[in-house]
Amino acid sequence: MVFNNSIRVVDAALMIDDLPVDAIARELETPVYLYSLKRIQENYRRLKAAFEPVGGRIHYSAKANSNAAILRTLIDEGAGIDAVSGGEIARALQAGAAAQDIVFAGGGKTVAEIASAVERGIGWFNVENELELQYINEAASSIGTEELQVALRFNPEVSANTHPHIATGHGGAKFGLTAGAISDALEQPERYPCLNICGIHVHIGSQLGDSAATIQAIAKTKQLIIPYPEIHTINLGGGMPVAYRLGQTIPSLDKLVSEIAPHLRGYQVLLEPGRAVVADAGILVATVLYVKEQAGKIFYIVDASMTELIRPALYGARHEIVPLLQSDNEPVTAQVVGPVCESADVLAQDREMARLKVGDQVAIMTAGAYGMAMASNYNSRLRPAEVVVAVDGASWSVSRRRETIDELVLCDC
Asked: Do 381 and 307 form a contact (C-beta atoms < 8 A)?
């Protein structure tokens, strides 16, 4: 059973690079996240090589996973960072990113976040509100900054072929600016003397299954900016798909790039992938707490839950679940559920898998993106530790330790 170059089953044991996952898990309290830095490095290099023909500059989307070791690995590889909050900017800077290599995105930046980002010399602002331009200009003016680079996020009213919760370019989405609002801003640059509005951002969603919607969005974007030669940069965001099912076929990255590349000639291209860099490099390890049979169903109650991995509850997302040690146990149809007091706390429903017993450990696969980044303390649960396997594939370390009860109540008055 092979998921990718780094995560696979060898001699009945799930491996992460050169290390048996169960050997790592025995030394730690579960649930726990494990990431392969080698796989993350490979994914980044693959994306960089694929977009080299269009001169694409990659800014890793930190919202997918802002683990410090992951950020450092990607920054060392030459990646910029796409941040959507003041907190993500702080994490990126602490990990060693240069301020000019950070893009500040997000549709609801606070005035304080904007002022702090301007003071720190952030390289690009992706703008989604007309008033935001005023706030950025005022912040730049207050410290004498000029020519601050800005990209206007265009909502092209294009429906992407993806889950509704991760589609961002249709007319009913909260994201971006209309064509009219963008034209108004570009027609009156004197209103923003400290800004250099020289880019257009057009991200239409994640898990894009083909290039058709992206090409349509690019065409609308180019039509919009024809009268404005000062716009030299198109930021496509991310959206490259990831396989969540074992054996699932996804569109070839080279094919996607070859299809969109002709439409980007003459422009500087920025990209902001997140999921495609880290998703398949991460797993969430859990332990079976109880086995329950009722109403004709088998329930495996594990110590991981929607507080560690909310995607199944939020999106109905599917993640493969694999025992750390394979067995010849008969396959059964089971429900894998967490201990949180919510009926939605289901990690897998009616899943055929080997029969498990109390104490067995499993890995929830392809959990490197939007797992720990979306974890919560609901039910006052402690957020788990994160472990990274080094680029050499032969050693591991705790990158973020498990929270403690004292930390949980630290901010209570």
From this structure: yes
CB 117 within 8 A of CB 89: yes
On whether both 359 and 223 belong to a single domain, the answer is no
Whether 396 and 294 map to the same domain: the answer is yes
pLDDT at 239: 83
Identify the band that residue 191 occupies on the pLDDT scale cut at 50, 70 and 90. Answer: very high
Active site residues: 341
- Per the structure, the complete domain to which residue 22 belongs is given by 7-36+279-408
> Are 295 and 254 members of one domain?
no
φ, ψ for residue 139, nearest 5 deg? -65, -40
Flag whether the pTM goes above 0.70. yes
Q: Are 43 and 51 in contact (CB under 8 A)?
A: no
User: Does 64 map to a domain?
Assistant: no
**Residue whose pair of structure tokens reads 């909050």 in the numeric block:** 85
Supply the mean pLDDT for the chain.
93
Q: How confident is the model at residue 238 (pLDDT cuts 50, 70, 90)?
A: confident
Count how many domains the chain has. Answer: 2
Residue type for position 222: K
Same-domain check for residues 162 and 288? no
256 plus 111 within the same structural domain: yes
pLDDT at 164: 52
pLDDT of 163: 43
pLDDT for the residue 162: 47
Residues ≥6 apart with Cβ < 8 Å to 196: 147, 148, 149, 150
The answer to whether residues 254 and 288 belong to one domain is: no
Q: Are residues 320 and 375 part of one domain?
A: yes
| Structure letter (DSSP) for residue 5 | S
Of 273, 301, 334, the residue at which a domain comes to its end is 273
Q: Report CA-CA distances (Å) from 268 to 55, 221, 236.
A: 7, 14, 11
Cis peptide before 31 (omega within 30 of 0): yes
pLDDT band for position 241 (50/70/90)?
confident
The residues near 264 (Cβ < 8 Å, ≥ 6 apart) are: 54, 218, 234
Average pLDDT over residues 347-374: 97
